What does this fold into?
Amino acid sequence: MRAETRIGFILLLTPLVLWLGLLIVIPHIDMALISLRERISFGVYEPSLAQYEKALTEPLYLRTFGRTAVMSVLATAITLLVAFPVAYYIAKMAKGRLQQVLFLLCLIPFYVSELVRTFGWMILLRETGLISSLMQWVGLADQPVEMLYNDAAMMVGLVYTSMLFMVVPLVTTLESLDDSVIEAGYDLGGNGWSVLREIIIPHAMPGVVSGCIVVFMLSLGNYLTPTMLGGKDSLWFTEMIYNQFIVRSNWELGAAFGFMLLVLSSAIVWGMLRLTGRTLQETMG
Amino acid sequence: MTRTILLTSTLLAGLAGAAQADTLRLLTWGGYAPDDVVEMFEEQTGHTVEVTKSNNEEMIAKLRATGGGGFDLAQPSQDRVMGPQMEFGIYKPIDVSKLNQDLFIPSMLEATMKNTTVNGDVYGVPHVWGTSGLVLNTAEAGDTVKDYTDLCDPAVAGKVSYRLKRPTLIGFAFAMGEDPFAAYGDEAKYKEIMEKVEAKLVECKANVKTYWGGGDELMNLLRSGEVTASMAWDTGGWKLNGDNADITFVAPTSGALGWIDTFVLPAKGQADDAAYAWINFVMQPEIAAKITASAGNFTASAGADEYAEEGLKAKYQASFPQEAIDNIKWYPPVPAGLESIEGEVLDRVQAAN
It folds into this structure.
């Protein structure tokens, strides 16, 4: 009997170990080795820390690095602000069929690929696009308005792309909040604001934190949206990694950038957990 | 009994056929292997062709990642053969005697072979050639923009688009009176030229609507009138010319930049015979003309011009008077090390405000 459970355990564990080992651990070790060498001449490489030195001393790389982090945090915050009322309405105010319909509506944009969704935004925002034409027709503008290729357009794209990943965990946690607890809060003399602050937000905290982590990771690692909507001023760290690997054929610096991104995202997630006083176990469990 | 024998012999015949017929995994550009040409080739030779579309950088990155495996025939530009071969060894020498050399335009074959020779071995033969220069809406920007640097003119502010890639750096350098190709061997001099170009591009950034990435993106911008002056390939301009007679390709006064896409054999290619067969097949004048019709660019096939479509010939002649042809600057092979200089310049331009 015990031997059988053991075999079952090993069989169940194998796919996970293979997945982690082959697709995550081994490539990362290889990347680490690549990032720790320097090209001397044709096909000759020497171990060195030159790539990290370059990445940390060139102001341009550091600026992009910082910009990507700040913008991702901002995108996460905006997503939370937009998604919280939506999630609250779906979980607490809407009843029965309406609830399912609303939830489905949040899901529908994800039936098409990210590329198509981004193109959708480009059609809306471009100079000859829908919004610009509408504004001219209404009389708000007397010439075509360009709304693409700036940070605001990029932010809109990022928030739109990650909405669902914030709404789902929020709805789940908010649904588990008993209505009578909120009522009790009002009975004890609380108003809308204090009930929100003392009861609803503390209860929703696990959902908020896990939603934020997912959205932050998605924004930080996004390549398509910043490149397409940000245009000439978009400078996203993933784009720099792509450039180093593909365009410049400089795998060493690209690998170093990759590791910096990994460290940065881990550090910010850790910081977020510290700030909210939660552990990873509480958030994930 | 007879049935069994019949069956066995069919099976055997099938096996024999399979041994000869290879799968040719072709890594190429959009339009270089149109469906009808692939079908004709498969019918004639029994080989099957798998086409993967890509661009220079991705071709080299893919081959580098596998050490030259995964494909049997690739088509990088001729200036990207020597450097990557010396650096990564991702190609194998071409046995030119297996090719029907009469099918090629002699001068082009000779020049490409010379530019792709490493340690006495030839690595590339020419296929499709073309130029990059200015694609303009001549009605709106034709009077202002005559050369690359005119893209920074206030008259076209906000209506300009170009790529943030090396052809832009080279084009601007020529337009600013420098000769970057002559400085290929002199890293210090090249760096100096690139710094001047960088200053110009940073200054010019306010004029640019966006840096385009893919051809379709630029086509949309020009077609909708959001962009009136851009730096692009000749074919792009000619294609748009069909929809809007005002838009066309113009060779800049400092000279259009000429490129030749080649055939190379990846180091771990497994179907060399099929690759040679494909090259010999597509270089036949009638077939080459089909590729010209689909890609929009002319090929190095001798005599294919006769079969080319009249409309395209007319557009070509309008964009390229004789002196513009003589003024084409052909890309020499890129020495190693220059691309990292260019890369840093491009990064800084992208980050500038």
Notes: Residues 292 and 298 of chain B are 5 Å apart (CA to CA).
